[in-house]
Amino acid sequence: MLSQKKTVISLILNLLIVVVTIGVVISYFCGNDGEYHIPPSFRFNLFTTDSNILCALTALILAFFEVRFLRTGKAVPTIAILLKFVGTTAVAVTFAVVVLFLGPTTDFISMVFGGTSLYMHFAGPLIGMISFCFVETIHPVSKKMLLPAVIPTAIYGIVYIIMVILIGSERGGWIDFYGFNMGGFWYLSGMAIVLLTLALAAVMRLIHNKCVRAAAG
User: Fold this and answer.
1) Which of 13, 79, 183, 216 is an S-S bond match for 131, by CB 3.0 to 4.6 Å?
2) Among candidates 35, 56, 174, which has minimal Cα distance to 115?
3) Cβ atoms within 10 A of the Cβ of 65, count?
4) Of 217, 216, 207, 66, the residue nearest 141 (C-alpha)
5) How far is residue 179 from each of residues 76, 85, 155, 164, measured CA to CA in Å?
6) Nearest CA among 170, 93, 183, 165 for reference residue 129
7) What is the pLDDT of residue 75?
8) How far apart are CA 168 and CA 186, in angstroms?
9) What pLDDT sits at residue 61?
């Protein structure tokens, strides 16, 4: 069980994730087309938007149970932490892909720090990772949760392959806006992203569980 102090810190961070994510998404429909002039409807085709929304939803669920704990003393259920793990893994993938691939191959400054990218690509994922790994040390995460943590990325990857490779922009699909099909090597990019997701989930699980043990004394 978390101390009240840690619970309050976690609650503040989770509510911050929820409020800022909602604000950013709303801004897309209020004339904010960003550095790359992306129309609002297309924003939901991007893993950046989808992963941040997923993380915000899991943060909201955890925040609900944290408020309940502060009011009644009833423990935060394990499922709330496991869901936060899945959501945090998704934004960790966003962070890693931007920092390691998209930033270096495009304009790093605007990709990481430009406009809403500062939150969606950088600050939001960092807040999620820090809160999950170091603050929300309530329940350990088992190895069995590594597969569920990969599922959101895998589902998006399947959709991306269908829309970019199988349908193609000429027939109403998507352009290869992430550049994952450069040279026709989409299958290598796909495997690399899945392995990256698994690695990120494993590292966060390791850090989280170590902090859980430390908190337990």
Assistant:
1) 13
2) 35
3) 19
4) 207
5) 41, 28, 18, 10
6) 93
7) 92
8) 13
9) 98
- Which tokens sit at 127? 């807040």
Query: Residues in the chain with pLDDT < 50?
Result: none
Q: Torsion angle, CA of 199/203/209/213, rounded to 10 degrees? A: 150
According to the 3-state scheme, what is the secondary structure of the chain?
CCCHHHHHHHHHHHHHHHHHHHHHHHHHCCCCCCCCCCCHHHHHHCHHHHHHHHHHHHHHHHHHHHHHHHHHCCCCCHHHHHHHHHHHHHHHHHHHHHHHHHHHHCCHHHHHHCCCHHHHHHHHHHHHHHHHHHHCCCCCCCHHHHHHHHHHHHHHHHHHHHHHHHHCHHHCCCCCCCCCCHHHCHHHHHHHHHHHHHHHHHHHHHHHHHHHHHHHC
CB under 8 Å to 80, separation ≥6 — which residues?
Answer: 61, 62, 64, 65
User: Which amino acid does the sequence have at 125?
Assistant: P
pLDDT score, position 4: 86
> Rounded to whole angstroms, how far apart are CA atoms 186 and 171?
19
Residue found under tokens 């609002």: 40
Whole-angstrom Cα distance, residue 10 to residue 198?
A: 25
Q: pTM of the prediction?
A: 0.94
Tokens, residue 18: 């929820």
> What number of CA atoms fall less than 13 Å from residue 200's CA on the CB side?
28
